[in-house]
Amino acid sequence: MVRGTKKWVRVEDSLAYRVHRLARLLRVQLLGMGRRAGVDLTPEQWFVLNKLRHRDGQSQVELGESIFADRPNMTRILQGLERREFVVRMQDEEDGRRHVVRLTDAGRDAHDRFAAMVPKERARLFAGVSDEELAQVSEVLARIEDNVKRSL
Predict the structure, then answer these.
(1) CA dist., res. 16 & res. 120, Å (int)
(2) What interhelical angle do 43-54 and 71-83 show, nearest 10?
(3) Cβ(95)–Cβ(59) under 8 Å?
(4) I want to staple 58 with a disulfide (CB 3.0 to 4.6 A). Which of 62, 74, 87, 88 is the partner?
């Protein structure tokens, strides 16, 4: 179908459906990776650990904004990580209204065990796709994401 026509499209043929389906499949794949690494993490928990591993001591708000989690969901994600002793939340010494999140040794270990699997999994997932194609897909998805954000 040509973009902009009023002809009905089968949902299976729409880009939004394919992106949604792929996101769900990637979620299942990531959950399996975590189990194989001995670290049962949701994708959102993995994103938080990864962000903290790259820059520890971020605020709860910063983390939520970076993974599109609203306050209640971010609180729930962090509570799950705290119960497993992967992170600690503490008041910011400079601004008592703000909470910062820090990785524990257990959190760093969980991150590192999971991250060790990433290169092999990426190679498997992106088999047959060139670096140029991946760059194009990434660029197009970023533009669509920007368009969606502007429309909200």
Answers:
(1) 28
(2) 80
(3) no
(4) 62
CA distances from 151 to 10, 108, 142, 146, 147 (A): 24, 38, 14, 9, 6
Whether residue 141 is predicted with pLDDT greater than 60 in this model: the reply is yes
Q: Does residue 6 register a pLDDT over 60?
A: yes
- Phi and psi at residue 103, in whole multiples of 5°? -75, 145
| Digit-coded pLDDT (tens) for 82-121 | 999 999 999 888 877 788 999 999 999 999 999 999 999 9
pLDDT of residue 54: 96
Q: Are 101 and 58 in contact (CB under 8 A)?
A: yes
**Helices and strands in the chain: count of H runs, count of E runs:** 7, 3
> Tokens at residue 18, please?
């394919």
- CB-neighbour burial class of residue 53 (10 A; exposed 0-12, middle 13-18, buried 19+): middle
Q: Which helix (H) or strand (E) holds 99?
A: strand 99-103
d(C-alpha 17, C-alpha 6), whole Å: 18
Q: What is the pLDDT of residues 11-33, one digit of tens each?
A: 888 899 999 999 999 999 999 99
Q: Are 12 and 48 in contact (CB under 8 A)?
A: no
